[in-house]
Amino acid sequence: MKIGICQINPTVGAINKNKQLILENYNKSISLGAELVVFPELALTGYPPQDLLLREQFLKRTANALDEIAKHTSTPMVLGSTLVDNSDLFNCSFLCENGKIVGYYKKILLPTYDVFDEDRYFKSGSEPSVFELAISGQTKRIGLQICEDLWDHNYSKDLAESIKEIGADIIINISASPFGDDRLIERSNLIKAKAQKTRLPFVYCNMVGSQDELIFDGQSLVYGPDGNLIAKGKAFEEDLLIVDLKETNQINLPRTKREESLYKALILGVKDYFSKTGHHQAVIGLSGGIDSSLTACIAVEALGKNNVYGISMPSKFSSSHSMSDAQALAGNLGIDFREIPINSIVESFEALMTPDLDTNNIGVAEENIQSRIRGNILMALSNKHGWLVLSTGNKTEMAIGYCTLYGDMNGGLSVISDLSKEDVYKISKWLNTSSGKNIIPKNSITKPPSAELRPDQVDPFDYDIVSPLISALIDNEKSPSELVKNGADLDLVKNISKRITLNEYKRRQAAPGLRVSSKAFGMGRRIPIVNKYDELSNE
Amino acid sequence: MKIGICQINPTVGAINKNKQLILENYNKSISLGAELVVFPELALTGYPPQDLLLREQFLKRTANALDEIAKHTSTPMVLGSTLVDNSDLFNCSFLCENGKIVGYYKKILLPTYDVFDEDRYFKSGSEPSVFELAISGQTKRIGLQICEDLWDHNYSKDLAESIKEIGADIIINISASPFGDDRLIERSNLIKAKAQKTRLPFVYCNMVGSQDELIFDGQSLVYGPDGNLIAKGKAFEEDLLIVDLKETNQINLPRTKREESLYKALILGVKDYFSKTGHHQAVIGLSGGIDSSLTACIAVEALGKNNVYGISMPSKFSSSHSMSDAQALAGNLGIDFREIPINSIVESFEALMTPDLDTNNIGVAEENIQSRIRGNILMALSNKHGWLVLSTGNKTEMAIGYCTLYGDMNGGLSVISDLSKEDVYKISKWLNTSSGKNIIPKNSITKPPSAELRPDQVDPFDYDIVSPLISALIDNEKSPSELVKNGADLDLVKNISKRITLNEYKRRQAAPGLRVSSKAFGMGRRIPIVNKYDELSNE
Questions:
Q1: What is the CATH number for A133?
Q2: Does B313 reach chain A within 8 Å, measured CB to CB?
């Protein structure tokens, strides 16, 4: 049997556009010989539609579009969409053929953790489903699953086994599974094990594209009943795979470097956020530091060099290298570069706000004024030219609040806010090495990081120590006492975890950040602002 | 039987402090003759603890504190806290007496809609529970419920009836039910009906206090088996009620004006946000308009007049009345008032950013610069003096994005962002009338609203028409086509609903706003930023 796996990039809420995209891919699949065509989870609505699912009209329009799609079918199609049944809503995999919906499977396992809220919207299905299809004169029994159903070990279930028990010849899992730096391996191990255990071919069709904070990486997978990988969809782009399930040639999972995967994920994140919100051009404050440099590289890959504007906004505290490094980067990338020195504005604030601002005794107020002037300049350029401001803070800074609210935190999208400072260095070095030239000026990588908001300032953290501790606390959800038990300095961990708690208020007002780790700040991490819990104190 | 109903105000995460608060109230209740002492839902952790519930140490510390509380008991106590059972987490009502936990009930109905996410954290209990207690030599059979269990009609269940069937003499519901302008009536109707149907006394103990966006209003209620209200806790403050269930005197629900309830709710919201985050003083940009005026009144009630700073920041577009009205308001309230004119800074931006800014042709860039300069000034004062900036935008503006991100949207807390423009007027007028003097200058109420960011500007909306339409779309969750069907202008509804969708990106970066309606922007309304759904178009 030849299966068309349509790894498409739908847009949330664009029901008509998604319908067209589905029909185009369906027709193309058939013309390429597919006998069954498969689309991702909720391909018709986009994922996650969030509270659009609470709107009756939205569900009706989705149901109508599904009917219209079904009318166009001849060859069977498996497609993810919504179903209202007895006033309950279900996340479904529909089977359509010969002009009709001929069956559907209601998702059983509804993820309600991290970035997922499916219990908020959907009722859980109760029965595994197998559907009989006549394909090339033969009867095929198709077992349907949706995304989380694959992660059934977390629920002490074995849904693949259940599907096999009721007679499936093949398992088709349609997914909207977001990227995380270890997700491909995790998925492929799970699928391989299911194929081997059930001795059934396993088709895994994943969504691709970015939606707000989430990046779907595609990388659809097909495993044969012997546990051999026989097909894989592209990473981070749409793909249409025509896979003959009789295929026995094994292929290998690509061994992409982690740095490359993260970089490409972020490029897709930027690209889709712009195209799906109708933006084309970005503006970035270039400080000559590594964070804004890496952000600019990603933006150029996503949008093209003619669509990225780099602005250097030196103050009297800016080093000469901060300007020259920024300019060198812009030159390397071939982007428009402008310098707008902020001294005159800083002075107007100082003059106006005497005695509140003390130029001889620079504290947080005097520092932040500068950052907020820069934020204001970038937003003025944004408002004037329609450029979208990209925020350049990394995850380590966002964790401890080493950033200025309404200043350098300004932006429509926070590109690298889920990369630790450690990862920012790693990816920057990889980028320079793999491209064979120092796109990011060497000095931006080697010099000590500094906000340059007062004389001779350098960041008051040893990132080599602090960045991994923060990653352990946030990404790996280790507890502070665990870190201390494992040898970390008590006072340092106390200080870091206190800062993480206190700076929740800043993160709550941060630009949406592209999620590339297993635990990002944002929708998947819901910590109260008013929060007196401190594990390392006895309060 | 005499019941002590402890309507307390715990703080999320402050396990030790909450423990002390519980023990103090318990001891006081006993000294006042209580034979059973009741505390709200999750009183020990505070509500909602959100992702703190995912931390093993947090749950352990909570369990330890509960054990310590139980050790102090003689007379029975009913207390809300968490239970880890077989590695599942439950939201429980614990019964403690004579130094021990003697029983617990696992919450059956877990709200997972609007601001609630309980399915994310808790497993649902399956059994109604009744516990026998010996009180004054008599056996009493106590049926326990938790909050949402009362709203059982939404789940086609009758949990009160089930409790009665297994022998309860009395129903005790412990709650953390947030304020909404119609919530008291809704709760009292439900409870009265349950009491009448089961012929059992019904004790409803609600939390009081504010947590991030949520305001818990207290107003605990006790109904007799005949459906008579026999006791009610105070609104918006802690209370300790000692209620004899033999009481037959009926009391009436107070008929508080809606304006007064909303005003008092917001005062509590501001008060608790400050006290629980360790802030004491607020700074507000006073424009002479009605929004900032009402915000200042609320802040003064919450924090005291010596703790509120009003800043007027006129530009060359500011009318003389905007300054005089602001000053008059500050005088009426007795707060510190400062004028910081921003012209010189605006000019520095214009000089620096020629030709990007065009002083002869004022557009959104030139307008926003002014708003962002003001935002920067307020934040500088905040950073210098530790004052917390209060944001003053209303819900109507927030809906359609008639506000400046990183400008007038700046603030640690958005005080009136869940009040429609219509409600802002109503409450302001009520305030002046009820206080017998024009605290808010009459001119601020009668003049046409204006952002004063360009010459002769007035807000480009007829709020009398637009504000109710927005309330219908957001608060009442009407669909745009319903509004049109009911006679609203198609183009206007199209325009408004498009603006609401497009401005999701601004609201995502807004300060947390105090929720007083049934549907507020914020944690209870999860709309994607990338969102191409438009009910009134065929796209």
A1: 3.60.110.10
A2: no
